[in-house]
Amino acid sequence: MKKYIVFLWSLFLINISCNNQSNSKLSENQINKKVDEIIEIMNIDEKIGQMTQIDQRFLDTITDISTYSIGSLLSGGGSHPEINEPQAWLDMYNKYQSESLKSRLQIPLIYGIDAVHGHNNVYGATIFPQNIGLGATNNPELIYKISEATSIEVAATGIDWTFSPCLSSPEDYRWGRTYEGFSSDPKRVEKLGEAAVMGYQNAKTSSGKSVVACAKHFIGDGNTEFGTGMRGLLDRGNTEISPEELKLKLIPKYQAAVDANVQTVMASYNSWNGVKCHGSKELLTDILKVEMGFKGFVISDWQGIDEIPGDYKSDIITSINAGIDMVMVSGQAQPYKKFMRLLKESVEEGSISMERIDDAVQRILKVKLRSGLFDSPLVENNSLNTIGSDDHRKIARQAVRESVVLLKNENIIPISKNINKLVVSGRGADNLGMQCGGWTIDWQGGQGDITIGTTILDGIKNAVSKDTNILYSENALDLEDSDGDLAIVVIGEDPYTEFFGDKENLDLMDEDLNTIKNLKNKGYKVLVLLISGRPMNISDHIENWDAFAAIWLPGSEGDGVSDILFGDYESTGTLSYPWPINTEDGANALTKNLLFKIGFGL
Ligand code: GLC
Q1: Is 552 inside any structural domain?
Q2: What pTM was computed for the model?
Q3: 114: Cβ below 6 Å to ligand 1?
Q4: Does residue 221 have its Cβ closer than 6 Å to ligand 1?
Q5: Active site (catalytic) residues
């Protein structure tokens, strides 16, 4: 009997792999039919394997991929091959995918990564502005192009799936993930998030596979109450909002992503009215899958099910029954073999029904078939040159230009390119890592030359005439006095990601304020550029500044800032978050307490 099934299956595989129609062009009916055929011959272990996602760093051995028919691998922040360069990423992908094709049913694995502002884990990839800066462009066509370029770079390394776009609409800027949100305004997020999903998933990649996008984090990640999160702050805290208010305010931006055919949704760490999203059947099934008609699959966040109250086995039962289809086990805290054993036990004892398992596996297989993964699981080395290409860097430079928000300008900008003397100062002037922010090369980002790009200083040098005398001094202490020369001083935040960026206070750093004070005391005019993941407290200082622009986290193409400073382009960026006098008051500050309104920009 077994031989007969294997014979049938190999016929089926021949049919799947060499039919003239690539699977990704199959109709939904044809896909449903194929999935039913596969499910028919899968055993429980293979079904559970498909629902398991492991970070490649935590594989016990590579053969586990085929032994357990593992459905997905990911690279969490910083989870790169030995050598972090494009060829090594492609080799790593093909190595794991080849192992996946040795499984009994040869179901290809789907590989996911946080390509959230470019293919940002990969050395040399184009690093686009973080979402807060893209929100300031308010340009959906540009967001589409950025996501398309990102998918082309992601696919060049073989990878199938990006955990992006983040659809947060953050309200409390003390949250470290504020910069991952396009805007505090859900309407602006809706428009830009939809463009991102379309750009990611419709990109024409070299392999022919389409890259799968992921709307995250469902739901209310940026709307938690201060004090309810980790370390008594915000991240992963509780979001109190009525079902009516939820559907009016936060659901539409996800509905737009679902209507744009987003293939995956990531559950959020936070709680909704005291219930962990990862364990909420009302959210993940009743609202997302039934009411909103989501046909893809729900992925958990990194060890997200572990945070559900109860022991690990009850976490598994609660989350799968709530509607999680694939679990980002990761393998770091809980061994993935333990996860698979407990999940199997839960099914065998009836705590999780086989139809729930089949529903989850069907969703996963459909996403794989729709993306063309079955057609070309292994990827040719024929497009690595798209990574960090001039074309992509041009798009990034345009995004930087359009993300700059000019908030004060006492006849400083545009600066003449023939200016005789120009001082450039501040911690962020010549620091690629600082201008990229978190989620860059490593999970928490880094300082200095972490990848290939142009700093703000590089951009200034490229823009001015050869006769201009540029003086660079990070803290301005060693400068002689001046009678009104101009100093460009770049200040701001060091890189951070997730809860590492949660802060009670959003004052500027003393070091930065001292640099500006040094310059003013020496008689310089100052143009202040702020690199930050959120609005910060400037109301006590801005009156002493001759000009001020928020440049957010611009990424690798720092020369996009000079395009504005020296007048090659008009500044068009507008605030996608209101800027309160006390920025700890966040987006809900009363209008009378605002320094600048949302939508403002000179
Ligand atoms: C992280 C983040 C999520 C990311 C995932 C995988 O904890 O919450 O945004 O996609 O883990 O890195």
Answers
A1: yes
A2: 0.96
A3: yes
A4: no
A5: 301, 498
